[in-house]
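Batch manifest, entry 17 of 40.
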Amino acid sequence: MIELSLIGIGTGNPQHMTLQAIDALNAQDLILIPNKGAGKDDLAGLRREICTRAIEGGGPKIVEFALPMRDEATKSYHRRVDDWHDAIAEIWWQNITANLREGGKAGFLVWGDPSLYDSTMRIAERLKTLADIKLTVIPGITSIQALTAAHAIPVNEIGAPFTITTGRQLRENGWPDSADTLVIMLDGECSFQSIDAQEAEIFWTAYAGMENQISVAGPLAEVAGQIIETRAKARAEHGWIMDIYLLRRR
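Output type: structure tokens
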């Protein structure tokens, strides 16, 4: 039997690790670390650093694997993602079976929390069709928490709702009616440019929680250009960027 643990590790700061996550890491026989290739290998490096700090003694075997690229052909977005998840699940299974021939405990370090705009649990469900697998999920600090901490703001107004959505949704559907506060994730195109800049205040952070964290805040009409320029410069410098922002109606 395979016991599969999806361990939330926060947003790149080793101090984000909970005691539960540290215990889970130390209990594994195998830890698999994805490597997204040149320009993004520091993400794998951060996972390795977390393992070095958190694991005591000999610890589990650590194996890196190359993460397959998503096919950006003409098929629909959901089909592309679904096929990509199938490919990742296959690589997971190859590495698990090669390293745990008699069964055992395998762990994956999940950026942020496994429940929030992350597909690790969906990929793990695919493995359940291949073998008897027990799935355990360890929660982690989210990028939303790191964002609001960076700006020292609450995510919601008093008694008011907020909406978590994506850059794609903001571009295609505009500001939803559900709330006056939006948290925008997975936005590679600075989608705040698609809304009326006069109506919003923005709190933007890149590399939230990491040593190289960058934050900009203010009326959207005044700081949008600064954010776009800062984001482009940071991406060119590091080869990758992860950012998140909160929009609030003024």
